[in-house]
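Q: Convert this sequence to structure tokens.
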Amino acid sequence: MSEEQRLPGGNTGGAVRVGDTVRRVPGRWTPSVHALLQHLEGAGFGQAPRALGFDEQGREVLSYLPGETVGVARPWPAWVHSDDALRQVARWLRSFHAAVASFVPPPGAVWREGGAWRPGLVVGHNDAAPYNAAWADGRLVGFFDWDFAAPVTPEWDLAFTAFAWVPLHARDVVRAEGFTAFADRPRRLRLFLDAYGWEGPPGPFVDTVRQRVSASAAGIRRTAAAGDPAYRLMIEQGVDVALDTAVRELAGFQSGGESST
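A:
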């Protein structure tokens, strides 16, 4: 077997590359995620890893998405916040939602953050953020780390992706990531929604983003309290507090609260 190469990122355990594969410690949700990825492969959706089973150590095996990642350094490369990247991500999400629309999870499917599938929902990625994207020659190769996949409305998945890429996170957070064009965020949000094909007004959508982010912060605290080490680390890093700050700041997003400072 090829030599193992540790990949950057990951709150617990991380992942290693072995040749053209990635090996990761599985969770109770991994079989459900593999069923999702197998569906996407069968649907001809090529911008996601392929599920390749498990190795002799019991680790899940996924195909490696080649390309550049933002890694763990801050600030991120300037191209992350380009209009072109924003359009590509929105179109990726639209194509993914089209491919996953026909996916019915297997009986007894388990998801990391819970949730039960019913008609009208999709199994969203739920973490399609810059730190989970691979790029090559300026093109989006796809998104990895599907651990947070779970049944949601398409709008819920869209809301988090907009939050991550417009970006709509707290100003201190996105400044550290290299984004300071706050007055441009309403235009970037409309650009993102148009590229996805979302025709509704941005005001109610921002309300959905705030609800989505509030739910994420609450979920982090709840799961950390139950003892999950990855979520306890997020609490230590102040991830939930930053999300709460973003929710407060977004209250003025559509009422003239955006400025260049």
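The domain at 78-250 is CATH 1.10.510.10 (Transferase(Phosphotransferase); domain 1).
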